[in-house]
Amino acid sequence: MTTDLFAELQTGTRLPMGEQAWLLHGFALPRMGDLLPALDALLRAAPLRHMTTPGGLAMSVATTSCGVLGWVSDRRGYRYAARDPVSGNDWPAMPPVFAGLARDAAAAAGFDAFAPDSCLINRYVPGTRLTLHQDRDERDFAAPIVSVSLGLPAVFLFGGHARSDKAVHVPLAHGDVAVWGGVDRLRFHGVLPVKPGCHPVMGAQRINLTFRRAG
Ligand SMILES: O=C(O)CCC(=O)C(=O)O
Ligand SMILES: [Fe+2]
């Protein structure tokens, strides 16, 4: 089923995941020429690291951020912070190609004038997953979330407003952009374990960019 969907989706397809939630298939592909060099520069300035959960475990997803605020996790909890706790420096500025992609994807999903102040960069090596959660560390939930998939494919779980609600399985490929907001802003979501493989451009990993209005 999932494999068939991969094959059937054409670049430019807008697949509904909810009333105000869309998968924009291949939306980021035309921008890769600028996006990937900007990503490389960011990862040199603020390297990926495995943050500690409030429970004291190392997260399996490696993360870093750019923008005015970065998402951090440690023994004190989850929150946004203006500085990278590893370097003590401000997070790198959000590259214009990142902000432009997020704004345009949000607009294509019906959310005008999205101006993210934070981009979380997640790296999944094969076997890494992200358990069902809600994004609720932001100051308010008026702005949508824009999530850009790069590298190895994955299956996105898009659930309901209760953790136990049944989740739809949405295939995510390199260049796909998921957008959810409005009535769908607080829906539970996650990522199934990434299958082993080697992406021709990104290698043996999946990288996800999550754009949010945090402050
Ligand atoms: O990697 C993904 O597709 C989802 C990331 C996510 O949900 C998050 O960073 O909060
Ligand atoms: Fe999330």
Automatic annotation (TrEMBL):
Database matches in SUPFAM superfamilies: Clavaminate synthase-like
GO cellular component, one term: cytoplasm
Domain Fe2OG dioxygenase positions: 115-215
Binding-site positions, substrate: W71, Y78, R79, Y80, D137, R163
Keyword list, A-Z: Dioxygenase, Iron, Metal-binding, Oxidoreductase
Any one GO BP annotation for this protein: oxidative RNA demethylation
Single GO MF descriptor: ferrous iron binding
Source species, domain of life: Bacteria
Cofactor requirements of the protein: Fe(2+)
Positions contributing to 2-oxoglutarate binding: N122, R123, Y124, R206, I207, N208, L209, T210, F211, R212
Comment on bound cofactor: Binds 1 Fe(2+) ion per subunit.
Gene3D superfamilies from the UniProt entry: Alpha-ketoglutarate-dependent dioxygenase AlkB-like
Binding site for Fe cation: H133, D135, H189
InterPro entries hit by this protein: Alkb (IPR004574), AlkB-like (IPR027450), AlkB-like_sf (IPR037151), Oxoglu/Fe-dep_dioxygenase_dom (IPR005123)
PANTHER family: ALKYLATED DNA REPAIR PROTEIN ALKB-RELATED (PTHR16557), NUCLEIC ACID DIOXYGENASE ALKBH1 (PTHR16557:SF2)
Name of the protein this chain belongs to: Alpha-ketoglutarate-dependent dioxygenase
